[in-house]
Amino acid sequence: MKTPYAADIRENQVIDGLFLVATKNQGVTKGGNSYLTLKLVDRSGEIEGRVWERADDLARGFDRNDFVRVRGQATLYQGKVQLRVQDVIRVDESKIAPEDFLAKSSQDPDAMLEELQAILRSIKNPHLLALIESCFADPELMNLLRRAPGAKTIHHPYISGLLEHTLSLLKLILKVVENYRGIDVDLLLVGGFLHDIGKVYEFSFDRAVEYTDAGQLLGHLVMEVELVDRKIATIPEFPAELALLVKHLLVSHHGAYEFGSPKLPQTVEAVILHSLDDLDGKIQAIQNLPEKEPGSKWTIFHRAYGRSFYRHIREEKEEE
Amino acid sequence: MKTPYAADIRENQVIDGLFLVATKNQGVTKGGNSYLTLKLVDRSGEIEGRVWERADDLARGFDRNDFVRVRGQATLYQGKVQLRVQDVIRVDESKIAPEDFLAKSSQDPDAMLEELQAILRSIKNPHLLALIESCFADPELMNLLRRAPGAKTIHHPYISGLLEHTLSLLKLILKVVENYRGIDVDLLLVGGFLHDIGKVYEFSFDRAVEYTDAGQLLGHLVMEVELVDRKIATIPEFPAELALLVKHLLVSHHGAYEFGSPKLPQTVEAVILHSLDDLDGKIQAIQNLPEKEPGSKWTIFHRAYGRSFYRHIREEKEEE
Amino acid sequence: MKTPYAADIRENQVIDGLFLVATKNQGVTKGGNSYLTLKLVDRSGEIEGRVWERADDLARGFDRNDFVRVRGQATLYQGKVQLRVQDVIRVDESKIAPEDFLAKSSQDPDAMLEELQAILRSIKNPHLLALIESCFADPELMNLLRRAPGAKTIHHPYISGLLEHTLSLLKLILKVVENYRGIDVDLLLVGGFLHDIGKVYEFSFDRAVEYTDAGQLLGHLVMEVELVDRKIATIPEFPAELALLVKHLLVSHHGAYEFGSPKLPQTVEAVILHSLDDLDGKIQAIQNLPEKEPGSKWTIFHRAYGRSFYRHIREEKEEE
Amino acid sequence: MKTPYAADIRENQVIDGLFLVATKNQGVTKGGNSYLTLKLVDRSGEIEGRVWERADDLARGFDRNDFVRVRGQATLYQGKVQLRVQDVIRVDESKIAPEDFLAKSSQDPDAMLEELQAILRSIKNPHLLALIESCFADPELMNLLRRAPGAKTIHHPYISGLLEHTLSLLKLILKVVENYRGIDVDLLLVGGFLHDIGKVYEFSFDRAVEYTDAGQLLGHLVMEVELVDRKIATIPEFPAELALLVKHLLVSHHGAYEFGSPKLPQTVEAVILHSLDDLDGKIQAIQNLPEKEPGSKWTIFHRAYGRSFYRHIREEKEEE
Amino acid sequence: MKTPYAADIRENQVIDGLFLVATKNQGVTKGGNSYLTLKLVDRSGEIEGRVWERADDLARGFDRNDFVRVRGQATLYQGKVQLRVQDVIRVDESKIAPEDFLAKSSQDPDAMLEELQAILRSIKNPHLLALIESCFADPELMNLLRRAPGAKTIHHPYISGLLEHTLSLLKLILKVVENYRGIDVDLLLVGGFLHDIGKVYEFSFDRAVEYTDAGQLLGHLVMEVELVDRKIATIPEFPAELALLVKHLLVSHHGAYEFGSPKLPQTVEAVILHSLDDLDGKIQAIQNLPEKEPGSKWTIFHRAYGRSFYRHIREEKEEE
Amino acid sequence: MKTPYAADIRENQVIDGLFLVATKNQGVTKGGNSYLTLKLVDRSGEIEGRVWERADDLARGFDRNDFVRVRGQATLYQGKVQLRVQDVIRVDESKIAPEDFLAKSSQDPDAMLEELQAILRSIKNPHLLALIESCFADPELMNLLRRAPGAKTIHHPYISGLLEHTLSLLKLILKVVENYRGIDVDLLLVGGFLHDIGKVYEFSFDRAVEYTDAGQLLGHLVMEVELVDRKIATIPEFPAELALLVKHLLVSHHGAYEFGSPKLPQTVEAVILHSLDDLDGKIQAIQNLPEKEPGSKWTIFHRAYGRSFYRHIREEKEEE
Q1: Cα–Cα distance between D22 and D45 in angstroms, integer?
Q2: Interface of chain D toward chain B, CB-CB under 8 angstroms
Q3: Alpha-carbon radius of gyration of chain B
Q4: What ipTM was estimated for this complex?
Q5: What is the pTM of this model?
C-alpha cells in the first residue's frame, strides 16, 4: 500500500510518494517565472500540487496521465491542503500497484463475467439470445465491461463495479420473477444486462475514473440505445416490436424524468427493471458507506440519496 | 350475476335491479313535496337515484346500508345518468350474491392467511415472534385482515386484497434477501406483515369500500404505529431499539414525504420494504388494468401512476 | 367541405356523413347479439358509433382505417354524444376530400422543402454537409418529412406542420446568429433541421394523427439520435467530436429534464436551439389558438402552456 | 463566562479551557501509536481535538459526556481549526457553569409551566381536561418539558425553548379565537399544548442538544401521537371522534407533506394550529437572528427559511 | 328570490325567468339563418342559451350586460344543460332584486367601513396616517372598496367580501400583536388595509364578478403598489424607507413565488401579514364551504386548497 | 493594473496595495482593546482585514466607501485568507484606476447609448415614442443607465453591462421580428428597453456592485413598473390598454413565478421578450465563463444555470 494517500495528507507534512498526474498546466508568474499546476490523484482522492522552482526542467520529464514520484511539503492555500513540489519525476507503470490508484471490486471479474454469461445464455428467445451473443462477440465491449466502474460516486464506484452490479441485478431478477406470472424473463434479463452498459463509454477509467465528454453530453442511457441499435442491425429478422421493448427498457430505466429518463417505464418489465436496479444500487451503497464517526451506527450523509443511514447490523466490508 | 350493473346503465333504460344504498337523503321541493336522493352502488360503481313520488312512504321501508330492489328509468341530469326511481324496497341480505357488491380476491383468504402465518412463524427473533403472535391472537384484527381491501382504487382494490398483497410481498422478500448478506430478514418480514395493516381501519368495507374518517384524518400509516405500540406494550422486555426499527419501517414505507411518509427510509430494511411494496403493488395494477379499447396492447390511463402501460404479454386475468 | 364534422354533431341530430374508422371492435351483448363499437374521426375530432343491428353483416363491409359513409342518429351516453349507427358502408378514398380528415399547412410542402434544402446547402462544414445530404438522399425519410405534423395538439398540429416549423426555425436561426460572434452556425442549422425529425416516426399521420407505439415508448428525441447515428456511420471520417455535438443538440433540445431531455443544453448552440425551437412553437400556437368566445381578445386556455393569451393584434389566420 | 468558546478559537491560539466531550474515539497510526479523536463542544458550537501523545494514559481519565479541561494549541487541518491536545483531564460538573454549555430561555421555566397549566385548566371539555391532567400527572414528561429545547437550530433552540414556544402559542391561540366564531377553543388549546411535545424524546439535551435515534427514525410528530394514544387509553369513555380530532392536530401540524406531515390540516382547528405554530416560530427566529455584520439591518441568511430578514425595529434581545 | 337559478335548471324544464346577459354573440347557420348564443348568469352560476328563431328581431331588443326575461326550454348539448330560447326581452334594472345576481356580504358595508376607518385612524405614525387618509379621501377608491368582492371563488367571493376580509384581518392583527414585542403595529395595519386593495381593479363586479384585463395581465398586487406610489407622491416628506416597507408588505403578501409574490416576506411584519391574511381567508372558506352531501361532516373538495374539510362544529351560515 | 488583487492574495504574503473599504466595524476585545474589522474589495472580489493595533488612531483616518492603501500580512482564519493590517490610510480617488475596482463593459457607453436611442426613435407609435422620449429626457435615469451593471454575478456583471445587454436585446428583437407577422414591434422594443431598467435602482454601483435595500425588498421588476407608471402619468392621452401592455411586458419578463414574475407572459410580445432576454443573457454568460482549468473545453460550474458548459469554439474574450 502506498503512503501517503492524497486524502490523508495534512498541513506541513513532508511528502515523498507516488501519484497519477490528472492535469498538468503551465503558467507564468507576474514576475515572469514559469510555474506548474498539477492535479495529483490516487484512489483516495486528489491534491493540488504547485511547482515554483525549476518548473520548465521538471515539466519536460513527465506528462499528463503519467505516474510520478513527488517530493515536497504540504501547505494550505485558501483552506485546502496543497503541495509545494520540490521534485517530480516519471515512474514506470511496472513500479505501480494499480490498486493504489483505482479501487476495485472484491470479486474476480472473470468469474463474474462467466457467471453473467451463463445466466444470459439461459435465454430462450432466439432473437434476444442473438443480441446478447453479438455483445459477447464484441471484444472491445467485453474488455471495457470487465473493468468499468458502476459510477463515479453514488454506488459501485470502483473498477469492475459495473459488472458486479449487473451480475447482482441479473440474479435478483431471476429470484423476483419466480413470484409473478406473466413477466417476460428473457426480455428482463437482456434489459438487466444492457441497462447501464453505456457506462463503459460514460467514464474513462484507465488510471482514474472521470466523466468523458460523451458521458457528459449524451450520457450512458443514450449511448447504450445506439449500441443496441447497431447490434440489432446485424441480426437478421430481429422483430421490430422486440427491438422497441428492449430499447424502452434502456430509455426508461432511471424511472423518472428528473433522473434523466426521457420516458417513464411503461411496460411491466420496465417497471421491474427500474425498481430492482435502484434497489440493488442502494443496498450496495448503504452497506458500504463510511460511518459518521468511529463506532457510530449512523453513516455519513449520502448526497444523492439525501440522508444518512442507520445500521443495526454491520455487514463485514467485502474488501477488507 | 346481477343485472344491470350500475356502470352499465344507459339513458332511457328501464331498470329493475338490486343495489346497495350508500347514502339516503331526504329533501323538500320548492313546491313543498318530499323527495329522496340516493347513492346506489354495486361492485361496478355507483348511480344516483331520485324518488319524486311517494318519497315519504318509500323512505320508511329501507335505510342507508340496506340492499334494495329498485325499479325506475334511467335519465340524464347534467351529463350523468340518473335513475328516476318508481319503487324501492328492502331486500334481505340472504337474497344477495355478495360478489355482486364487492369484488374479491381470486384467492381463498383462509389459505392465504395460513400461508402468511407459516412464513411469519419461521421468524427466529423471539421478540418479533412474540409481536406477530400477539397480532395473530387478536381475533378482531385477524378478522378484519381476512377481508380488508388493498386500496380503494390504486392496487389490489378488492376484498382480501390487503391479504393478497401482504402475502405476495412476504414471499417476494424471502426471495430478494437470498441475493444479499447483512439484511435482517426477521425484521423485514415483520415490516412486510405490518406495513399496510392500518388499512383495516382506513377503509370500511362491509358492503362497499369507503374511507373512514380515521382513514382520512390519520391514515393507515399512523394507525398501524399505534397498533404496534399497543401490542409491544404487552410483550415483556421488548428491546427499545427493536421497537424503533419496526416502527421506522412503518412510518417510512411510502418512501417519500410527498406520499405521506413523515420520515424517509433510513435503514437498509426500510429501503427494501418501500421498494418491494411499491413494486408488488405496481405489478398487480399493471397486469389488471383494463385495456384502452378492446384488443389494444395499451391499458387505460392510471391516474396515480400518471401513465398508460403497454402489455405485449397478456396475463390471464385471475378472476375470469 | 364535409357535413357534419364530428365535433359539430349534437344530440338527436340525424346524420349522413363521411368518417374515417379509427377503431372497430366487435362485442356480444349479454343477450348474445353482436354489436360494433366504432371510433369515427375527421379533422375536427372524433365521435363514438355503436351498431346494434345487422352488426355482423355491416362489419364485413369495412375495416379499421377505411373511409365510410355512416347513417344514424346522435344520442347521448354518459354525457357524450354517440351515434346509433343504422348503416355504415365503405367509401373509396377517391371520393374523399383529404383536407376534411387532416388539417394541413397553408404553405406548399414542395416549396418549403426547396427553401429548406437551399438553406442547409449553404453549410460550409463538409462533414455536416455530407450528413444533411445523406438525409436528403433518403427518399423514405424525405417523403415522411413532407407530410409529418409538428405535434398532435401543442403547435403546428397539421400535415406538413413539422416542415413548416423546421423551416421557420432555420430562418430564425440565420437571423439570430447575425447578432452574435462565436456561434457555430453550421452546427446550429443541422441541429435545427434534425431536432424534431424523429417525429416522422413518432406519429402515424396517414389518415389521422396518432402516436405510434415507438413514439410512446421511445419518443422522437431518441429515435432521431438513432437516425443520425446510422447516417453518420455511412460518412467516412466524420469527426467523433462533431458527431457528439450534433447528437447533444438533439438530446438536449427540450431544455429540461421534466420535458424529456435526458441532458441539459451544455453548448451555446444547444442553448440557442432549445430557446428558438420553443419560441417558434409558442408564436405559432399563440397566433392560431381559437378565441375564448367570438370577438374576445382572449384565447381559449392552452393546456400545455398553462394559460390563456391576450391578443391585441389579430394575425390573419393563414388557412382561411 | 468561560473562555474561550469553541467558535471563537483561531489558528495558533494556545488554549486552556473547559469543554464537553461529545465523542471520543481511539485510533492507531500506521506507525502503531495510539491517538484520540475528540469532539469538544460548548454552547457556541464544536471543535475537533486530536491527542497524539500519551493517548492511552489520557484516555483512561475521562469518558464521552464528561466535562474536561483541555490544554493545547489550535492548528488548521483541511481548512478547519483543530486542537492539538497536550493535556485533557476530567472536571467535576460542580465546577461548571451550565449556561456555558447550553443556551437557555430567558424566562423562568417554573413560571412558564405555571402559566401554561393555568391556561390549560380553563378548558371546559371534561375529556380534554382529563387528557391534559394525565400529562401534568406524568412527572417524567413534565420534567422533560421543563427543559426541552424548541429545536436544534431553526427556532427556540435553547433549554426550555419548547416550553417558551408552547406557552407563547397558547396565548396567541386565545387571542386569535376571539376574532372568530365556531372554533373549538378547547381542542385548539390541547393541540397547541401537545403539537411539539414529542420533541422531549426527539432531542437529548442533558449537556448538549442532539437528535436521538428515535428522533431521527420516527420524529416528534409520530412519538407524540403514541404518547396521546397511551394517555387516552387510561381515560374512561374518551370519545373516539375527539381522540381522532386531537391526533389529527398532531399529524397535520407541519402543514404540508414536504415538511413531514403525513396528512394535510383538514379541520379548521388544524389549519389554525399549523398557521400559528409556524408564525410563532418565525417571529422568534427573525427577532433573534444575528445581524449580517455589526450595525446592519439585515440578518444572516436563515437556511430553513431560505432568506435573510430586514429589521427596521430592533427588539432588545431577551437574554442579554 | 328569483326562480329558477341557473344552477338549478334541469333537462326538459320549461323556463320563464330573469337573467343577466354576460355575453351575446350572433352567428349564421350553414343554411344561412341567424342565431344567437347567450351566456346567461345569476348569482348561482351560468347557463348557455341559444336563440334559433327570430334571432335578428330578438337581438335588437337587448344588449350584453342587460337584465332580460327569458322563456324557453332546457335541453342537453354535449352533456351540459342549455336553453333553447323562445323569447328574450330586456327588463329594467328597477325590476331586479340585485341579490339574485350577486351574492353579498351578510354585514353592512357602511358599518364595516366605519369600523375599518376607526381602527386605521388609531395609527400614530403621521406619515402612515397621511397615507391612509389620502386613500379615505379618494371617493372613487372608497366607492369601489365598499362593493369589491374578496375573490372570484377562493374566499370571500361576494360583494363587499374584500371589505369584510380586510376588516377581519385588521382586527386579527390587533389581537396578534398583543402577544409580541418589537412589531411595528402601524405598519402592519397599513399593510393589512392595502394588501388586497388592488382587487378593486382586478375584478369587475357591477352585475357579475369577472376578472378585468388588468387583473389578468398585472394582478392586484402590482396595481396596489402603483396606487400606493401615487398616493405617497402627494404626501410631503414621506420617508423613503417607510415607503419601501409599505410596498414590501404588498409585493410579498402572497408569501411564495408560486403564488405570484415577486419577493418573499423579509420583514417580521411581512411574515405576519402573509400568515394572518392566509389564515383569515382559509377560516372563512372552510366555514362556508358546502357540505359534500346533506348531513355530511365533510365539505366538498376545495380546489385551491387541494382537500376537503371535516367540520365537527357547524357554524351557522351567516347569510341564511 | 493594481497589485495584488484581493482574490490573488495567499497565505503569508506581505501586502501593500489599494482597496475599497466596503464595510468598517469597530469592536472591543475581551481584554478591552479596540480593533477594526474591514471588508476590503476590488474588482476581483473581497478580503477581510483586521486591525489589532492602533485601531482607534487608524480608524479616524478613513471611512466606509473610501479608497485606502493597506499594508499588512495575509494569514488564515477558519480556512479563509485574512489580512492582519498594520497600516491603513485614505487615498484620494484621483490616485485610483477605476477599472481596478469595477469591471466595465468593453464597449463605449456613449456609443451604445447613441445606438440604442437611434433604434428606439424608429418607433412609429406616437404614445410609445413619447414614453421613451420622457425617459431620454430624464437625466438622472440616463446617467444611471450609462453605468448600471447587468447583474451582480449571473450575466453582464460589470459597469455598463445593463446598457450592453439592453442594446444587444433590441438588435436581436429587430432581427427576430422579421421572421414573423403580427408582432407589435414598437411595443416589443419599448419592452426590451424597459425590461431591466429598474436595475439602476436595484444595485448600487458607485465603487462596488451591491444590492440596495430597495433591490432586495422590491426588486427591479416592481420598481420599473412604478417608473413607467410615473412617466405615463406625464403623457397626455396615453391609451390605457397600451399602458397595460407595456407594464405586462415588465411584470412577466422573468417568464415563471419561481423566477419572481408575478404573472406569466400572456401576450405574444411578452413571450418573445422573455425568451430573447433569457437567451441574450445566457449567450453572454456562456461565452465569458472562466474555463474549469487552463486549456479545458469545459467552463466552471454556473450556479444559476445549474451546469458547466462545453465550448468547442472559443470566442475571443472582448476585454483582453
Answers
A1: 11
A2: 213-214, 216-219, 221-222, 225-226, 229-230, 233, 241, 244-245, 247-248, 251, 257-263, 266-267
A3: 23
A4: 0.85
A5: 0.88
